[in-house]
Amino acid sequence: QSVVTQAPSTSGTPGQRLTISCSGNTSNIENNYMYWYQQLPGTAPKLLIYRNNQRPSGVPDRFSGSKSGASGSLAISGLRSEDEADYYCAAWDDSLRGWVFGGGTKLTVL
Amino acid sequence: QVQVVESGGGVVQPGTSLRLSCASSGFTFSSYAMHWVRQAPGAGLEWVATISFDGSSVFYSDSLKGRFTISRDNSKNAVFLQMNSLRLEDTAVFYCAKGGSSSAGYFESWGRGTLVTVSS
Fold first, then answer.
1. Which of A36, A76, B50, B80 has the lowest CB atom count within 10 Å?
2. Best interface-test mutation with A: which of B45, B48, B62, B64 has the largest number of A CBs within 10 A?
3. DSSP 3-state assignment of A18?
4. B57: nearest Cα among B77, B34, B78
5. Is B55 helix (H, G, I), strand (E, B) or coil?
6. CA–CA dist B109, A89 (Å, integer)
7. What is the DSSP letter of B53?
8. Do B106 and A35 touch (CB under 8 A)?
9. Is the confidence at residue A25, as pLDDT, over 80?
10. Per-residue pLDDT tens digits for A50-101
11. In angstroms, rounded to a whole number, what is the distance separating the alpha carbons of residues A79 and A76?
């Protein structure tokens, strides 16, 4: 069981604003940057958000990240069918001296 | 543009060894950390190992119990993962990722992965 937890699934309708949450502890999310990755079906993961709330070039501004204490969230506004994917949060863990991933949240666009 | 391409996967028997390679291009390889991340069939992402830009620092997942070794050759823009004593539960797609910084930086760019199947 991962030290960083995410809900296994969520769903939304086109155009909706939706958030995916991630919860950790002092060793990881609270004291380090948080990252978000998108994995479309059958493809490699892709960096979506880095350093809590920064978007790499090419990532639409519909995606945004935030962090408060030992938890963080990914917000997707104007939900589209092509957003249907698995979303993972990640952070460095000072106690484990390694990276930890959340278990992933599968987003279904109804 | 940044490219990382994994190779070396295949079908192997339990207890044997395998060496994965990752060829990189499109960036100054010797300035960035590199990572290996794996994904078992139908499962989530699992961090495996990280090597700093110059190879002086390496980090491993505790779950590997010393069976895997990460290394790099900056003259060839390549990173490697030596996997020993392979187990059925090591079956996974192994991804190589460019770090976001020189030390233990995040997973900035990913390859398409190489499949390792451990089966008797």
1. B80
2. B45
3. strand
4. B34
5. coil
6. 15
7. T
8. yes
9. yes
10. 999 999 999 999 999 999 999 999 999 999 999 999 999 999 999 999 999 9
11. 6
Give the amino acid at A29. Answer: I
Distance CA A12, CA A106 (A): 11
Closest CA to B105 of A55, A15, A50, A59: A50
Yes or no, beta carbons of A46 and B110 under 8 Å apart: yes
* Amino acid (one-letter) located at B96: C
Summarised one tens digit per residue, pLDDT across range B64-116 is 979 999 999 999 999 999 999 999 999 999 999 999 887 778 999 999 999 99
* Helix extents (H) in A3-97: none
Q: How many CB atoms are closer than 10 A to CB A62?
A: 14
User: Which residues on chain B are in Cβ contact (under 8 Å) with A46?
Assistant: 110
* Residue keyed to tokens 């993972």: A88
Q: Which two three-digit tokens encode residue B115?
A: 């499949």
Q: How many CB atoms lie within 10 A of CB B70?
A: 21
Q: Which two tokens stand for residue B20?
A: 């994965």
Residue with tokens 């020189």: B102
- What's the pLDDT at A63? 98
Which pLDDT value is given to residue A1?
Answer: 66
Which residues of chain B neighbour A42 with C-beta distances below 8 Å?
Answer: none
